[in-house]
Write a sequence for this structure.
């Protein structure tokens, strides 16, 4: 048997150390694989959605949701825009059943369609859908043509008509581009709930992953009657309503 | 002759100081702060500080372009290049302790952009001063 000299000994022991490291990193890899990291792109394994129960939602609740959205994203203080030009990411809408005269109030924002017409018509690919179903405007590419505003069946989008300053750090907004509800993507990516959902004390609005069988929204949708607004358009919206 | 030069130089210096009265650049202070904390601004792995700075000066649009698509379109958060972090360190504070917008004339972005005549569109949408809570 040959005696190991110092160099060989070091070589061998590095090999041993290396293999331990591989095992160790293998282990840590499997641990990390459980939850996606911040640096991973979002995937279509999730689909974010919202269920709004109009029976539980009071008019005051809707106003709270609107002001929470304004505060979170900094819209609604445009001084030079006239009524029609003012942005409205989320609105209070009154609907009346003509047969029964029943009136319900709903909070209406971008419905985060699975087949979004606003994305289909955009000539620059600025209007886009993330893999997890959140529909956004990439303002770097938006040329302000407003085709998407015409295409959206829910009147969910607004155009910024004036120079803005003092925007929120997480929500760049500027003249000449189109904007709409982002489903508070900056909060959702951190694992938080959208601002309008947080603003409510009740469970009138449930937010979550539509595809996750253990999520509250998935289970509630399984249990209660719900509908999509203009379901006839087959857009498969991410925002659903019950009680209308 | 040399006396004349001294006079000329002191006049120049005087006017430079008079100019900078408008804002107090805090970049030097920031750099010291970074050094004290043991981190060097823009230091990238395997690169000297100087090389990193040159890279940053030449390539900041590319660095940000790549990042913005990843963040917005793919939902990748965090990472090295973030416009808000540029803003956070590179804005100056005026005499009243208020932040001066980074794209204002004479300020960090505008000095070079004016010199080379390239327009600066980031800040028609992005915030020009550090966020309130920071
Ligand atoms: S609701 Fe309108 S803006 Fe939102 S995804 Fe659908 S079509 Fe686009
Ligand atoms: S206004 Fe902007 S987002 Fe809308 S279709 Fe035109 S380029 Fe696309």
């Amino acid at each position: 048997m040959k005696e190991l000299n110092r160099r060989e000994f070091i070589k061998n022991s590095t090999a041993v150390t290396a293999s331990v490291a591989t095992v160790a990193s293998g282990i840590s890899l499997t641990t990390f694989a459980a939850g996606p990291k911040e640096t991973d792109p979002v995937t279509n394994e999730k689909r974010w959605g919202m269920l709004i129960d109009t029976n539980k939602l009071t008019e005051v609740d809707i106003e709270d949701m609107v002001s929470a959205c304004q505060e979170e994203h900094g819209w609604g203080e445009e001084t030079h825009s006239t009524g029609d030009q003012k942005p409205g990411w989320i609105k209070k809408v009154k609907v009346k059943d003509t047969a029964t005269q029943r009136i319900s109030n709903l909070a209406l924002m971008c419905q985060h369609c699975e087949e979004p017409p606003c994305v289909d018509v955009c000539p620059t690919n600025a209007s886009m859908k993330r893999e997890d179903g959140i529909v956004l405007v990439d303002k770097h590419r938006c040329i302000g043509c407003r085709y998407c505003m015409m295409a959206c069946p829910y009147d969910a989008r607004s155009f910024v008509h004036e120079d803005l300053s003092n925007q929120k750090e997480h929500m760049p907004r500027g003249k000449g581009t189109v904007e709409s509800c982002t489903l508070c993507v900056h909060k959702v990516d951190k694992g938080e709930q959208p601002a309008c959902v947080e603003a409510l004390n009740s469970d009138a609005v449930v937010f979550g992953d539509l595809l996750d069988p253990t999520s509250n929204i998935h289970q509630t949708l399984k249990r209660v009657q719900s509908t999509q607004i203009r379901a006839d358009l087959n857009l498969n919206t991410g925002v659903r309503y019950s009680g209308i | 002759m040399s006396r004349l030069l001294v006079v000329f130089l002191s006049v120049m210096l005087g006017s430079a100081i008079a100019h900078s009265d408008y804002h107090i650049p805090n970049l030097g202070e920031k750099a010291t702060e970074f050094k004290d904390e043991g981190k060097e601004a823009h230091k990238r792995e395997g690169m000297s500080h100087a090389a990193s700075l040159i890279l940053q000066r030449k390539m900041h649009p590319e660095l940000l372009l790549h990042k913005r698509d990843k963040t917005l379109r793919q939902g990748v958060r965090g990472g090295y290049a973030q416009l808000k972090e540029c803003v956070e360190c590179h804005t100056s504070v005026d005499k009243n302790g208020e932040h001066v917008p980074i794209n204002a004339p004479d300020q960090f972005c505008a000095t070079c952009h004016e010199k080379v005549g390239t327009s600066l569109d980031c800040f028609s949408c992005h915030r020009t001063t550090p966020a309130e809570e920071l």
